Amino acid sequence: MARKTSYTAHTSWRFRYYMALCASAWAAFADPPSGYYDFAEGKIGPAMRQALHVIISPHRVIPYGLGLTNTTSALMKLDEDPSNTNNVILLYARRSEPKATFAQSNGWNREHLWPNSYGIDSRPPSYSDLFNLRPEDANVNSARGNKFYDESNLLDLNYRRPAHLEALLASTDTDSWEPPDEVKGDIARSIFYMAIRYTGRPTNEPALLVTDDLVQISGATNLMGRLTTLLRWHMNDPVDEGERRRNDLIYLYYQGNRNPFVDRPEWVRPAFNPGLLVLRDGTGLKLRWPAEFVDAEVENRNLFDTAWTVVPIVPVLKINVWEASITFTQQLSFYRLHLR
Q1: By C-alpha distance, which of 272, 147, 125, 292 is closest to 198?
Q2: Are strands 84-89 and 96-98 parallel, antiparallel or unpaired?
Q3: Are 318 and 325 contacting, i.e. CB atoms less than 8 angstroms apart?
Q4: CA distance 246 to 253
Q5: Which among 54, 68, 322 is positioned nearest to 197, based on CA atoms?
Q6: 98: preceding bond cis by omega (within 30 degrees)
Q7: Distance CA 184, CA 210 (A)
């Protein structure tokens, strides 16, 4: 595909001075301010998610399209190519693209990681949240559409790798999108941020939820996935210096809030990983785990077993938890939840 690449390579002294200030500030503020996360320390599960929500909201809203400080100009700074300050780095295409091609048909535009159609509905502040926006090739953005994130199904009739000629390291199938390996963790932590930041409070904001129940993900819900895949991507692609720098710049110069899972990646597990609750119930045991883990299975082993085996149960959904009952035995047994 033909592409216009002519642009000026000149960088003014004012811009160089500004970037020097940014670099200096980043060096000084690479860690969150002392006490920033104190309210969340020691908490797990829903209590941790609520505490983090209180810490990171509200934030300063950056206008989506108008004014000198808007999301486009912000992305030009946040995702600037460090080797060429006239360019931005595109998320899926992994290409250095001239800033000047923004909104051109063969240029770049703004990609919503959590699709606008899954509960955001063009409403501020979620619509313009910089943690959810990244520069992307306009054609690749259209190709992804509102597909949720997951590992591509090679047996799907619509499986394609590359997902697009401008995104050679991405793949796709009928309903999901798999980005390049080097940004999988970045995307996962952004999705986790969105689920923490937007909980329906205040009432004009959406209540966003990450799930494994892929059938329920649609324009009629506020759901995004796939949860277990995003958890795995978070573990396999750790936070790097570029992600920390972006987090710092959003905090210092734009929104005034941070992504807690960039600062404290170890908090993803207590915030989102399921806990399996085992209760004695008369002559049996009652097992419970969070409702968002629709594709999980319970495994057990006794004290002397070396392998875990699947417990044959049919769980029932009760409000916000899955619940199943099993027969109690006197043999010492261990139970765990396996995320498929």
Answers
A1: 125
A2: antiparallel
A3: no
A4: 10
A5: 54
A6: no
A7: 16
Q: E strands within 138-208?
A: 148-149, 171-172, 176-178
Q: How far is 290 from 5, CA to CA, in rounded Å?
A: 50
| 174-178, Cβ contacts within 8 angstroms, sequence gap of 24 or more | 175/147, 175/148, 175/214, 175/217, 176/147, 176/148, 176/149, 176/150, 176/151, 176/152, 176/226, 177/144, 177/147, 177/148, 177/149, 177/150, 178/149, 178/150, 178/151, 178/152
Is the model more confident about 247 or about 306? Answer: 247
Angle subtended at Cα 179 by Cα 178 and Cα 183, rounded to the nearest 5 degrees = 140
* Bond prior to 125 in cis (omega within 30° of 0): yes
Positive or negative torsion for Cα 177, 179, 184, 190: negative
The CA distance from 118 to 208, in Å, is 8
Taking Cα atoms as reference points, which of 223, 137, 116 lies closest to residue 180?
A: 137
Instruction: For residue range 172-216, list pLDDT tens digits in order.
Output: 999 999 999 999 999 999 999 999 999 998 888 999 999 888 999
What whole-number distance in Å separates Cα of residue 189 and Cα of residue 187? 5
Give the pairing type, strands 209-210 and 333-339: unpaired
Q: Which two tokens stand for residue 189?
A: 């932590």
> Cα–Cα distance between 174 and 227 in angstroms, integer?
18
How many whole angstroms separate alpha carbon 98 and alpha carbon 338? 45
Beta bridge partners of 288: 277, 323
Q: What is the pLDDT of residues 11-57, one digit of tens each?
A: 333 323 333 344 444 444 568 999 999 999 998 888 899 999 999 99
Q: What is the DSSP string of 277-337?
A: EEEEETTEEEEEEETT-TTEEEEEEETT-SS-EE-----EEETTEEEEEEE--SS-EEEEE
Burial class (CB in 10 A: 0-12, 13-18, 19+), 32: middle
The dihedral formed by the CA atoms of 340, 158, 103 and 169, expressed in degrees to the nearest 10: 60
